[in-house]
Amino acid sequence: MTALTVDGRAGNTRDRTNTLLQQAERDKPLDSRQKKAVELLCAGLVPKCVCEALGITNSTLQKWRSKPAFKWALSDAMQVDADLHGMRLRQLFGKALDRVNDLLDDKNPHIRLQAARLAFEAEMQICRVAEEAEALKALEHRMEELAHAAIHGSMPNEVHDAEIIEGEVESD
Question: pTM of the entire structure?
């Protein structure tokens, strides 16, 4: 989790997950059924199925989910899964890219064309993701600037974000 917030001092940020971790450490440890609930939720089961599997009510599951230790365990388990799947996808991407590269030299012109199209689409997607990451980073920076200004009571006179939005609106 990478949710950042501005902490009262100029330019300093702290990770909200640290607060959740501290709360979780003070919380009572999860029992075996709560751990199983984390496992089932992480596996993608909907809450209703988790309740049925564990023989609990929906309100019990909601109560568990509100506890910092449960939130932390679920967040941690999901992050581990995401990391593992990400590594696996990167390996598969490398193999797929090698295969597309081989197909670019195929005797059949239709196969070569499809391989070229796949390579082009992959490159376009990579560029799109990079552009979106750059825009997100710029927005996060702007939010930090505005939060810092609000904390210190010095809101800027210029609001560039509104000007950008206003420029995109078409008039009739």
Answer: 0.43
